[in-house]
Amino acid sequence: MVEKNRIIIRRFKHEQYSVRSKKRKISFISEAHEKFYYEKIPKVREADVYHKALCYCLGINEDTRRNVDRIYNFKTGCVKPECLHEGWQTSGSAKVVRTAFNLYCNGTPSVDDEQDTEEQVDECRRYSVEDLFCCCYAPYFWQAIQIRYPEYATYNKNLYAMFGGNGKLVSGVCHRGRFFRTVKQRNT
Q: What DSSP designation does 111 have?
């Protein structure tokens, strides 16, 4: 049993490197988005997954591309949460900025700008998946998540088996607010 686990771990390590060495195709909403992304990456302090996700997100919307220096300081590496209160913001650009902030900072930096507790709670709610993803940018937000978390963006069957996966797919159906699970045996 121990030898079998070592073999699986070796296979996993090999697959992990081969997956990372492959270039993933990035989807862009427009040519302007793609141009923005590749122009801004060299300007960030470090071209890591945090900065790549930030640049990708901020390039999604025309308003955020035009006002990028009001959103992010390329010299200090700091976000500027006060930009969410500026007059150029639209509902779409605010969602783009909040998604970018969340992926870059792992948090909700604009919540601290609010003085009143109720306003802080409201601002925090604006970072919810439901609030951010209910728009036409959702597929591009998903792409940004894949850029930020590349190690979780692919399914690895051997890793799943190593941690006790039984090859069953679990799906569900939502009916009148209740979730019903169904289990299907995976065909291998």
A: G
